Amino acid sequence: MEKQNTNTTSTPAIGANGAVGGLYRGYKSRNARLDRLISTPPPYLSNTKKGLSTYTFKDITSLPLLTEVHSHLFLKLQLLDRVIRARKLHNSRFYAWDMDYGHAKYLDYLQGMRSSTVAALERLERRSAEVVYKDEKWWGWVRGVQDEEGESRKEEKEGKRVRAEAAMFRRHWKAAESRMRDIKRKEEARRQDAYLDMVYRQRMEERRQKGEMEGEDGEDSDMEWDPIEDVLEDNRGSYIDLIQSFLWMAVLEDKVEEPIQAETASPTPTETPPTPVEEPQTTTSTPQPIKPSHSSKKAKAKKKKSQTPAKKLESEPPQEPDKSLIESKAEMHLRLTQGVDFESDKIKGMLIAGTLENPVITTKTITFPEDETNRLISEIAEIKHLLFCRLVLGHAALLPAALRASSLEDFLADEEVTASALRDLCLKMENPGLQEIRDACADLFRADEEPEEEDVEMAGNGDEEVEDVHPYDKEIFKPKKKKDALPDKWLPKGKQNAKQAAGPMGDMPSLEELMGAEGGGAINFGKTRDDAPRKKIRVKICGRSIWNYPSDKAMNRGGWLHFCILAKDSNLHDAVALCRHWDEFFELNILAIWGYFPGKNWAEWAGNRYRQQMLQHGFIMYFETHEPDAMQLTVHHQQGGRRGPSRRSHMAFEARNWICAHIKRDDQASRRLVQYLSMHRHSLLILVRDAETGNLVIKPPEDERWLFRQKSGLGRAAKNEWNVIKSVGPQFFEEMEKYRGWNFSFKEYYDVYVWDLEPGECFAVLYNTVQEMIFKALRCRKGADMYNLSAPVLKTLHTDKVTNRVRDIKPGEDVTSIYDDINNEKTQFFYGKIEDDTGLKVHRVYDKANVFPRNLFYNQADVLEDAVLFPEELIAGKLNPKDLGKISPLKVWEDEGFSLRKFIEGWESDYSGEDSEEDWGTDSEFDDDDDDDDDDGESGDYVLDHELEDGDVLSDDEGDEDEDKEMVPARATGQVPRIDPVKIIKKLNYSKELQEAMAKTMSRPKPKKKDPSDPRVMEEQFMTFLDKEKARIFKEVWHKADTEPHAQTHYIEMLEMSRASRKFNHRNYDNPATVLAFNLLADMEVDATDAKDLHRAIAKISPFFHYHNISKDFFAPDAPGAPFKESLIFNQVERARVYPDVRSHRSNKMQPDVFWEEFDREMCEEGVNGVEDLPADRDLAIRPIIAQLYKSGIIRSRDAHFEGQAIAATEPHRPQTYDFFIDWRQNISTVIMPPSVKNPHLVPLLKTTARKFASRHPAARFSVLTLWSAPYFYPLMVGPQNRDGTSFRDLVGRTYNFMFVPKCMPCSEWSIHRAASLRLEPWMEFFKDRVVVRRDKYLVMGKDEKDLERLTAAVAFVVQMRPWRLEVDLWKSWVNVDVGFLEGLDDKWLV
After folding, report:
1. For a Cys-Cys bond, which of 573, 967, 972, 1313 suits 1240, CB 3.0-4.6 Å?
2. Is beta strand 1331-1334 parallel, antiparallel or unpaired with respect to 1337-1342?
3. Please, which pLDDT band fits residue 1191 given cuts at 50, 70 and 90?
4. Which residues contact 642 (CB under 8 A, 6 or more apart)?
5. pTM score of the predicted model
6. DSSP string, 1041-1088
């Protein structure tokens, strides 16, 4: 039965019986040759029985062996290609239906063999390249590219690539149609050749039968035609044609076609190729044109003799390629010179024409002049070639040929470049990735001698030092989170999945890595080689240089211009994802805003006027609620009532506006912006997320996270709870991620979410507030300064006055830049406001140009404030991203808690209040000083912590007189008798005073020992530790907020003096300080745990007393106190002459009426509508002070409610100096002090009391100890429930509340007087009437100097002991003075 022809492809038809026989015999002979090749592999492949797919060839190091194996595999692949092609062709012609007689199964076997051979050959090519090019600098990079490309090809099956190939040819049918006509003409010629061959053989047979050719042998094998070589050549040529079309190498219009007959014209794309015939019909009227065939030389000679010349016809005009897929040069030329329409309707919101950025509202992309268009097109043609070279780079099998080739034409002509490899390149060239296009654009601008790019400091923790984490450094006592509270860290789902895939411990090292290469070696966790900066490397592919760092090196704007033109359907979102770092992205952003790029999709980036202004300032908004805004969404409705026909019902829906944006990480302006927005707690709320770590570095109060909420029901609305519909949290973050049209490839940014505090506001209110803070963060002082951030870009751009096109300024060109136009004196800026609720109408507030509200731009008050908030900027300090928003140490302590280590070690280190004073400002608050070690051997451990028991022996170590004597308890063993400790003390070689003092202490009742395992004991210990922690952080906060001149210097000097005095007191055991300590321990019945506090108090005041020569020895040249001999702390006469330049302590209640007159008068003047209209020097006076209080944590931002107003005023003792005060006069009548709180002003004056005491005691001596306090607050905590009463507003509208008692607060004197009195109450029996308290001062009265020292040390002890918050300020105290000295003091010192 004759086989049905099933050909439905473009494969050339086989039209003669001889050709069929040649095809059959050809693929049979190749199959036999393939079998022989498989049976005789080279020795390397025949030594083992493993399959070809298991060979990695990594053990081959010899180039000859690689060549031998490569030749075998390459020949095998060539034979497999031909055998498979022939069998497929044969089957398609002669095996119809399903009766393939086993051919399909064998064909599948061959295809599987081919796949394994291709894979093995690719691995061998990679190994050969590694052996040959291993010493080349570029090899490591190329290998990585090939690995990545190989993985992608592994995932893509061969069948999928075949289907993609077919789809590609269907898409490019018109482009391939010309080649199909060539193929058809060849086929027709072959048909004629086959017919002539048949006639020739018949005649030869007839002549042989007649005896005319007896001596000639048949050469059937030579005369047979095998079409497989032509099929392979035609397929390869099709791929080359497509590549040339992609690269604009061969323009189809220029191709010269051979003349063909009309009846042989190729079919249209919808037609199928002609079916082959068994025997072509001949004609004598119109002979067919003949082309050379692939038959034998003899056959060709015979055919040439029988040929007759053919008449050439007019050639058919060629078909053009598919313009929708391959943009020609002409089309690109037209697009660049005439522009493309785009829809501006997609932009929602207000557009303003006549601005510098938008002179007109255009709906067409920019155009280029002819000369520039031609230049761009020629450069893009080169980029196409570079793109092709980059694609070749990832194909291991093509790399040797690409390295050999000096041009692209040489590469395509190389016989080793197979058709399957060309097919893969065609599929990639048809639709290259944006990353490949970007890399090719970058390659165009890289010269051979390109200088190294300066390292760009990227965001992250790579350069940050990794601190050793102590096992006990775990946070405890951290506030517990509610169920739906904000997390401390949030990452998008994609990044979360990546982290989860690594497991809870990440990528764990292997055992060998942990133990080291030799086993037992040290583990090195330092920087790896991958962390080192990479150097530029290039490799020549097809004669063109390709560079190895496309993703790490920022591409210049010329490259992005070519990218925009070449990837015409892309938008700026695609380009953003390819940017290396923030600076590259920001330049791209500025260029797009000013209309630099010709892409129609790129013109939409700038958006409306709201977005455009923010983008120029580096505040990259990607979502805002301007349409509809919260004002349009908020609804309150209530109907009915008590007297109405129906019951009262209500419905309310409240909304807040919000903005989502990105800002640059590790940037001073960004840090300032975040801080300014955080301080505007009265109008907005902010959340900041670090993209590098995912940490939420700034978080709002939990109850203020809502964005939409509603309530409805019966009765009063106030009685129902709000139902929150939308709030800021992880779900909201995910939702906003979907609205953003791009993703950054870097992490050098912060996510910023800002929303209104009050519901129902117009969006412009939130927008204007954020914009004003941006102006100040960028330090814009005038309208033109708004463009300073983009100045490096704008200085290189010029706007054509005719076409309004923005272009680069050419080198040496004398034109004005955009930046010059902005700063031209003729450029005018107007301040406008939205006129109606639609947000589409704007009117000018000031008719005069360049006039703005006083606080809109950065002013001198902002300068003074920034000097306090950001002092590191003055010294060019480096920012730590982890410190963003962490200005107040108290807030950090509250949010982050404290570590377990401090609890375990801190309370055992005998931490006390004065230790915290000394450690304030140092690295660790638990560092033990040298003198602390001496304290352990002084009187605490051996006398107080371990009372002597029966059987204990006191030994007196007198080995070295230069060393300190020490009493060491030892448990007697053996027959040591039980001795009374008091008797032992009397026998020691100590002074009588010390023996008596020690005996008095030893005679006290022995305290009961505490069981450490008792939970109550542990709780007591923890509460003690908590008091120490609070004292430490409070003192740090208080002293940082002390604005008195030289306050920190004086405080540190006082601490160093106290430390030196303690060290001096420890020089030996038998000294007056030790005697005083034992006496006070016994007289005041001090607990053993408080002994250290007593020693510190004695050390603080002992240098002021002279009766025992302590002060003389203390100030000796080689003594610890020598540096303080000339200090004003001890030169009290000189210190008393100059009162500190600070405001008074008077509260609102005690201020005279004249104090308020100036402020009240200014508020009533014409043109003053609020405190913001007061003279500017008022804000200059108080803004830095408020900033200092805010930074240290004394005050905090709060919501819009406030009860006081910050003012600048003068006092009688400083008539020319304005200082910070708060007007709380409205609260004076509401402040009612409880009966237990006494009025300090009712206490007699201290001079009067001292004078009376001196009259009774002629040798009387006095001390006036003053509690430390800052000029604006007392060291007393304000409870959370009372903080509303301390709230106030500054002169720019920001609101705060005090965390500690402000001195301006009505009756603040009562509070500090009560706190000072409470410190004495437990010991009033000891002090009796010898100590008088008046406000923050203690008048200590001694009958003589010795008595005064005893009482002064006792007062210092009870003031500074637990909870270790109050301190005696020696700079404002007077120790060991007579009554005459007190009477001579200015009253300001003693009021």
Report:
1. 1313
2. antiparallel
3. very high
4. 648
5. 0.76
6. T--STTHHHHHHHHHHHHHHHHHHHTS-SSSHHHHHHHHHHHHTT--G
| Among 1346, 1334, 1347, residue whose Cα is nearest residue 1264 | 1334
Contact 695, 488 (CB under 8 A): yes
* 1036, pLDDT greater than 60: yes
Structure tokens at 322: 């598919």
Residues paired with residue 1337 on neighbouring β-strands, in sequence order: 1266, 1334
pLDDT value at residue 1023:
87
Helix, strand, coil percentages for the chain (3-state, nearest 5):
50, 10, 40
Burial tier of 829 (Cβ tally within 10 Å: 0-12, 13-18, 19+)? middle
Residue 650 sits at φ, ψ, to 5 deg, of: -145, 155
Beta strands in 404-543 (DSSP E): 475-476, 538-541
Among candidate residues 618, 625, 570, 574, the one with its CA nearest the CA of residue 593: 618
CA angle 1085–1089–1094, rounded 5-degree value = 65
Q: Using DSSP, how many helices (H) and how many strands (E) does the chain show?
A: 48, 30
In angstroms, the CA 367 to CA 337 distance is: 5
User: DSSP 3-state assignment of 771?
Assistant: helix
Interior/surface letters 953-979, b for 16+ CB within 10 angstroms, e for the rest: bbeeeeeeeeeebebebeeeeeeeeeb
Write the pLDDT tens digit of every residue in 491-508.
987 666 555 554 444 444
Task: Please state the rounded mean pLDDT for residues 641-648.
Answer: 70
What are 860's two structure tokens?
Answer: 């001198």
Which of residues 1245 and 114 earns the better pLDDT score? Answer: 1245
- Identify each DSSP E strand in 924-1071 by its residue range: 952-956, 967-971
Summary mean pLDDT of the chain: 77
Three-state secondary structure along 48-67? CCCCHHHCCCCCCCCHHHHH
Which pairs count as long-range contacts for 706-712, CB under 8 Å and 24+ apart, including other chains? 706/656, 707/655, 707/656, 707/658, 707/732, 707/755, 708/633, 708/653, 708/654, 708/655, 708/656, 709/653, 709/654, 710/651, 710/652, 710/653, 710/654, 711/650, 711/651, 711/652, 712/649, 712/650, 712/651, 712/652
User: What residues contact residue 725 under an 8 Å CB cut-off, 6+ apart?
Assistant: 707, 708, 709, 710
Residue with tokens 């329409």: 341
Question: Quick one: which of 1323, 1159, 1173, 1339 has its CA closest to 1260?
Answer: 1339
248/601 Cα distance (integer angstroms): 25
Q: Find out whether 1261 and 1376 touch, Cβ atoms under 8 Å.
A: yes
The pLDDT assigned to 753 comes to 97
Looking at residue 741, its amino acid is G
DSSP 394-427: T-GGGHHHHHH-SSHHHHHH-TTS-HHHHHHHHH
Residues 23 and 227 sit within 8 Å (Cβ to Cβ): yes
Query: pLDDT-based confidence at 1254, cuts 50/70/90?
Result: very high
464 - beta bridge partners? Answer: none
Greatest pairwise CA separation for the chain in angstroms = 169
CA–CA distance, 1376 with 1111 (Å, rounded to integer): 12
Burial of 1373 (0-12, 13-18, 19+ CB in 10 A): buried
Report the C-alpha gap between 247 and 245 in whole angstroms.
5
Distance CA 757, CA 759 (A): 7
pLDDT, one tens digit per residue, over 328-381 is 888 899 999 998 887 666 666 667 776 777 777 777 888 899 999 999 999 999
Sign of CA dihedral 1216, 1217, 1223, 1228: negative
Using alpha carbons, select from 676, 426, 443 the residue that is nearest to residue 537: 443
**How many C-beta atoms lie closer than 10 Å to residue 365's C-beta?**
21
Paired with 1222 in beta bridges are 1206
d(CA 1091, CA 1093): 5
DSSP 943: I
Q: Where are the alpha helices (DSSP H) in 1108-1245?
A: 1110-1114, 1132-1136, 1157-1163, 1176-1192
End-to-end CA distance of the chain: 129
